[in-house]
Each structure stands twice: as C-alpha cells, then as structure tokens.
Predict the 3D structure of the following.
Amino acid sequence: MPTSIEQTITSFNVKKEELPIVYAPIERPDILTSTTYKIKSLDQAFYISISDIEIEGKLYPYEIFVNTKSVNHMAYLTAITRLVSAFFRTRYPYEFIAEELKQIHDAKDGNYFKRGMNFPSLIAEIGYILGKHFQDLNSRNSMKKDIAQD
C-alpha cells in the first residue's frame, strides 16, 4: 500500500545492490603448455588435451580439447569442451567441474572399467581426468610456492 508524503523531499539515497565479482575472460596467449591424456574404449580412442596458463606465478587450466576419429560423440564433446574452456577463462574456482562431470551417467556407453575404476560414461571419465589434472596443477603450484620461499 502506498504511503502518502505530506512534506517536501529534500534528499534521498539510492541503495546499491552488491553484485558478484565478474572476472573478465583471460585473453589467450600465443603459446600455452598442454598435457594430453588418452582414453581407450573398446573400439576407439579419445585424446584429451588440457592447456594451462600461468598467471602471477600460478598455473590455471585454460582450455580443453577432445580429439577422436569417432563421429558418434563429436557434437556433445565439442559442446562440453567449449563450455568448460569458457568457464576456465573466467578464473572462477574450477575444481567442482570435475566432480560434476563424474556424475554423468550414460545408459548406452556407461559401466566399463578403466584404471581399476568403473566409469558410468565417457564424460565421467573425462571428469576423472580433469580431477587428476587439477591435482597435478595444485602440486606444481605448491612446489613453485615452496621454491619461491627458499
């Protein structure tokens, strides 16, 4: 219900909402270091390349690519790699992406054993690889930090 104002308004304040910090995407340098992992399924191979960027002495994932001769999976693999790469470039915390991908189940391609583990889908195995890559980055960043302190 509106309130009636009987006096003249002499001043006012506008309350500003606190907006989340938005990171500007990182521009791609000409050269990035990359690690490539191989996934071998029953009838095809997939190569996952993850490129890292160094910012202020710390390594971050920058982009991911999946290469294969199989055309069956290319549409959704391309979509996922573009989305994940775009997210990496924002510098938001990225570790949860691996856990989310590991939860994806595929009734057609799932339930096969690799590395002594059961992966419910190809995407879940990519999530596992991302998780291992993130652990490696954290280790390398810790080693750089220790070396810098010595």
